[in-house]
What we know:
The chain has ten helices and five strands; from the N terminus they run βαβαααβααβααβαα. The chain has helices at 16-29, 43-52, 58-62, 64-89, 99-108, 113-123, 139-149, 156-168, 184-206, 214-219, and strands at residues 5-9, 34-38, 92-96, 131-136, 176-179. The protein has a five-stranded parallel sheet, sandwiched between helices. The longest helix is centred in the N-terminal third of the chain and has 26 residues, at 64-89. 36% of the residues are buried.
Amino acid sequence: xxxxxxxxxxxxxxxxxxxxxxxxxxxxxxxxxxxxxxxxxxxxxxxxxxxxxxxxxxxxxxxxxxxxxxxxxxxxxxxxxxxxxxxxxxxxxxxxxxxxxxxxxxxxxxxxxxxxxxxxxxxxxxxxxxxxxxxxxxxxxxxxxxxxxxxxxxxxxxxxxxxxxxxxxxxxxxxxxxxxxxxxxxxxxxxxxxxxxxxxxxxxxxxxxxxxxxxxxxxxxxxxxxxxxxx
Length: 231
């Protein structure tokens, strides 16, 4: 198996953006041509605008159903852009969020099943990543991280629903689950360990794109990264 597309997914506050940035940077430093791509749905950006306008969050500004539509469309366009860039540039793409994030968002926010069916029809043209890492985190930990960002807030009820939403997806058995409750260094080490494990068969057959830098990745220091979520 040659890993060319790697997706990091999970509930808000799980550290997807932090870890996706780190993974892409560390692979590139190890000699693997890797880039970071963000497939955001715009919810955090709209949330920032809402706060500046005196509203509580994105849904308070434009409504729950409207925000879900906007999120679905923007994420679809972001994924399309990511895949088009991948087709032209090659190398390894580390994706911050993917289609399953939209399905989980719809479930966690109480959308009707028909909304998810429509989303799946729209997203069905996108290929499944070579590996999808699901970063799992306790809702209490996720809420503390979100509040520390200072520009949005999620209720405990929603965070628990989001955790359950990912577990309920039909794609869940294909995910590589990573415990993201630890420090950024600990989570990063777990991701690299899984990548080495997944790359090992490919190394035996064809030289192993990712395994070639495994020793470097295992020894790399993680100083200089800020633990933050952007979008």
